[in-house]
Amino acid sequence: MVLEGDLGFVPGQVRVGRFSAGVTGNLGAMAFELVSLTPAQALGIPVALVGSVFLALGAQFQHRGVSKGQSEERPDTKAGLNLKALLALVRRPVWVAGTLMLGLAVVLQLFSLYLAPLTVVQPLGALALVITAVLNARATGTKLSVPTIRAVAFCVGGIGLFVSVAALTTTTVPIHDAQLIIVLILLGAVLTILAFSFGFFRSKFSTLLYILAAGVLFGFVATLAKVVIDRVHTLIAFGFHYEPGDGLTFVCVAGLIAAALTGSYFVQSAYSSGPPDLVVAGLTVIDPLIGVSIGIAVLGEASSAPPRAAPVFLLAGALAVYGVFQLSTRHPPASPS
Predict the structure, then answer these.
(1) How far is Cα 284 from Cα 190, in angstroms, rounded to an integer?
(2) What are phi and psi of 24, to 5 degrees?
(3) Helices 207-238 and 177-201 meet at what angle, rounded to 10?
(4) Cα separation of 50 and 35, whole Å?
(5) CA–CA separation, 208 vs 278, rounded Å?
(6) What is the C-alpha separation between 53 and 49, in angstroms, rounded?
(7) How many whole angstroms separate alpha carbon 40 and alpha carbon 114?
(8) Contact criterion met (CB below 8 Å) for 95 and 65
(9) Which of 69, 174, 251, 304 has the most crowded Cβ, counting Cβ within 10 A?
(10) CA 275 to CA 336: how far, in whole Å?
């Protein structure tokens, strides 16, 4: 089963041809080929950026809703939210508003995944951390310090470099059964490990552990969403023709729902024991790291990238991770009001 049609020439696509530079001496000659995005795929970048804005706003509002409940009754936040606390959230307008914003952010992210490769869209979510840092500063009446501004610069610079290289060297490729099976096996293993760990060591879970678990799961959510979206795109373009391997698509949908629900619970539990910028900081590091790693290692979205693009990816990722880490360690105290 192939989840996309022929990847030949697309009308309106602009390709940067092979570039070569002859250099005398021991340097020899260099040659590489860059792959550009179509205009429709490039539209996925601003769509993802708008989604990041709603992600930041939704995180702020949801954290306020969870914090209000925590101020009324103080359960063991390390043990996560219980059923009563979860049901109480839906009765708080501020939490519902945040959920609607996050829902819109998810829709925009899915649309951006429909338009552009995973490796281009996924890292843009890290910009939500920058917005969250600014919102927290305004909410707490504090000014962004020089170290915080420097961290923002590292984050934006790293993400900008990463996306620029990804836009030139990655492309959407056909996804085969073997790749889907690998992704689903990895997700099954992650869910099993998390279920075992949470069942036996729930009282020892910290905010960072909740963030780590949620980030890993949402990385899989983005990957499986891309698979399902590509499959729907294929059905629209070529019509429905059932093949034995198409059953994997339904397994992907089930895995996506399981990962999204479990990850959402971990996020709410993280809000109950930590500030929103710390939660967003962790998610915007781990989520893109998992999603892009799967996109490159399993789905082969960077198969057309020249070898010298790898160190640029690593450098850009390191800059963004450093900036996000610095932001997460300098967050102002969150206000529950």
Answers:
(1) 19
(2) -75, 165
(3) 150
(4) 25
(5) 9
(6) 7
(7) 10
(8) yes
(9) 69
(10) 9
H helices present in the chain, as ranges: 39-42, 44-72, 83-89, 93-115, 118-121, 127-140, 146-169, 177-201, 207-238, 247-273, 276-297, 309-329
331 phi and psi angles, rounded to 5 deg: -70, 140
- How many CA atoms, within 13 angstroms, populate the side-chain half-sphere of residue 269? 28
pLDDT of residue 80: 66
| Cβ–Cβ < 8 Å for 120, 44 | yes
Q: Give domain status of residue 2, yes or no.
A: no
Range of the domain at 317: 18-329
Question: What does the pLDDT read at residue 244?
Answer: 67
Alpha-carbon distance 95 to 228, whole Å?
29
Decide: residue 203, CB within 10 A, 0-12 exposed, 13-18 middle, 19+ buried.
Answer: exposed
What is the mean pLDDT, run by run of 10 residues, along the chain of 337 residues?
39 36 36 61 88 89 78 55 80 90 88 78 76 79 80 79 75 78 94 92 82 90 82 74 76 94 90 79 77 80 80 85 72 45
Cβ-contact 196, 266 below 8 angstroms: no
Q: Do the beta carbons of residue 283 and residue 211 sit within 8 Å?
A: yes
What is the domain count for the chain? 1
Contact 198, 157 (CB under 8 A): no
Burial of 196 (0-12, 13-18, 19+ CB in 10 A): exposed
Nearest alpha carbon to residue 59 among 262, 274, 243, 294: 274
311 in a domain, yes or no?
yes
Taking CB atoms within 8 Å and a gap of at least 24, the contacts of 265-268 are 265/80, 265/81, 265/86, 266/80, 266/210, 266/211, 266/213, 266/214, 266/217, 267/62, 267/210, 267/214, 268/62, 268/66, 268/81, 268/86, 268/89
Helices (H), 73-176: 83-89, 93-115, 118-121, 127-140, 146-169
Residue 208 lies in a domain: yes
pTM over 0.85: no
Backbone angles phi, psi at 239, to 5 degrees: 85, 165
Q: How far apart are CA 320 and CA 316, in angstroms?
A: 6
